[in-house]
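SEQUENCE AND FOLD
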Amino acid sequence: MTQLDSELIDWAVYSETRSSLGPDFVRILGYFREDGAQSIVKIEAGIRAKDATQIIMPAHKLKGESLQFGAIRLAGVAELIEMTARKCVEHQETPDEIIEQVVGLRPLFDETMPILEYESSPVVQRQPMGFGRRSSGLGNHVTNS
């Protein structure tokens, strides 16, 4: 696990979710990938339409699902987008002030998902540490020295 991984993922939350979901974890993580991508498409459409009301629910959903998997940075950006969009609705303003965060949302999602999926791989969990092998610092993944 790298420092960047720790900044993106709260591993205690991830482990708790993985433990509670058991064998369904990988399937539900796949749903998160699909739902998260759909939420981002809706958020981007809301920004293009300058319609804050279109942004609130998909940002809220992305925030909640991200928190369940420990994707803390993604959840934080989604929350900022959601709360700012709510403020824009209340003040009858366009959501222009969150354009930068919305633009960064997809790359952050694309950076976060492979880390979550890598750690959920049963192959990663089963690789033994043996003679002539050392940890690469990425979860339980090992490389030949």
Q: What stands out?
A: The beta strands are 133-135, 142-144. Residues 124-145 have pLDDT under 50 and may be disordered. The helical segments are 3-8, 11-21, 25-48, 53-68, 72-90, 99-120, 122-126. The chain has seven helices and two strands.
